[in-house]
Please model this.
Amino acid sequence: MKRRLFLSQTGAAGAGFALMRAAGAAGAKQTDLPSAVISWNSAATSAIAAARFAPTTAARTLAMVFEAVYNAWACYDSAAAFTLSGLRKRSTAERRTSNKSIAVSYAAYGVLVDLFPAQQSRFALALATATAGLVLTSQDAIAAVQVGQFAAGALLQARHFDGSNQLGDMTPSGVPYADTSGYLPTNSFDTVVDPTRWQPLMVTSAAGLSSVQSFVTPHWGAVRPFALKSGAALRPAYTPGPSFAEMDQVIAFSAGLTDANKVLVDFFANNPGSVTPPGQWMKIAETVSAADGNSLDADVRLFFTLAQAMLDASIACWDAKRVYDSVRPITAIRHHYSNQTIQAWGGPELGTVWMRGADWKPYQRTTNPSPAFPEFLSGHSTFSGAAAVVLAALRGDRFDLRFTFPAGGVPFDPSVPAAPVTLSWTSFTEAAAAAGLSRRYGGIHFEQGDLQGRVMGRQVGQLVQARANRLFQAGENQS
Model:
């Protein structure tokens, strides 16, 4: 039987979810408390939002946290194989939920403190919450603490040199996550030399400060993946463009935006300062866990697999972005339709108007009119396609998701929607398709970038799920 969940807004649209079970939701265990895994997902996504991480660095953060969590947990599981060296199975007598909770908590804590040292107080609170009511002074508990700490250390040793440049030691600037690929844009913010290539924009912050965009993590295709052979392994063919048909479609979407379309755009937007698209799917996983009444064991498998899918999706997608360096709609439409009169969204409170093509704008916040990286492929489509495959494989695709936007709930377009709008999907596949389409409605992507991103996302999800299954079923053949 289907589970039904109702999602309510918490903060910026799409940034986080509060769970409200429908009465009598099938399979939901009303008396169960969330596992320690949920506490750490909440801590990690909150830290990502506070640090204003990019989708790429957010995906890696989540993958690191839950790979450490998985390996700590695997010490207490009879079948699961390790992905890190130096760990060993604990005795059968120690394989209790309390010990697992302690081990996974110290593993997550160690990784997050390394990634976000300025937020250590946040993680100390999460550690206290996740281990509340557990006795930490017994011999088994002390051993569990040590297991978690060792798993965190092993994970950090493996990931500090994975090509991400987390420590800033791969570049002279010493800036964490700085580009190691030597990328330079073909176009400048005020001159289009090649209309098929990405153009950095001059953007103005909410504080009124102007700056020119820089490609966010152009080197990301070289980061070591979880299940892919390399970032280029799934790279699709791309015809530089876009075609006039694709541009006309984006303009037509802009002219015909309904309140429901606009709400969909803002729901999935995940602007800087949010949990990001990978984090949004991890938050959806929290609602899945609650609806299904997951045990800690089930949550470890769910969040580990989903997080690795987000990592590999980021690597494969950014490989294509860097290689093809493709133009965004805002540049293409302004360039090709500069002296033509078109009908499109005119700005907040204005609705659809006639304008010069040179003045066209996406349905986005003025502080973030178009992302700071090339168009092809769509990150939203890739992340969402991968997430849908993983979630469906682990517990079935059928799942009711519903979100009601209040009247006036779009922050940058205050009269939208005129009346409450409810978004709803009956499966993860359907929600993933909506996420991809939202980027075309919002003027961020062309059809090719969306649809090819969905394909790649599904391929990533399948590969990650296959490797995760092999790990889960490996048996006690590792020390």
Remarks:
- Confidence is low (pLDDT under 50) at residues 1-31.
- The chain has 13 helices and eight strands.
- The CA atoms of residues 6 and 477 lie 43 Å apart.
- The longest helix spans residues 296-324.
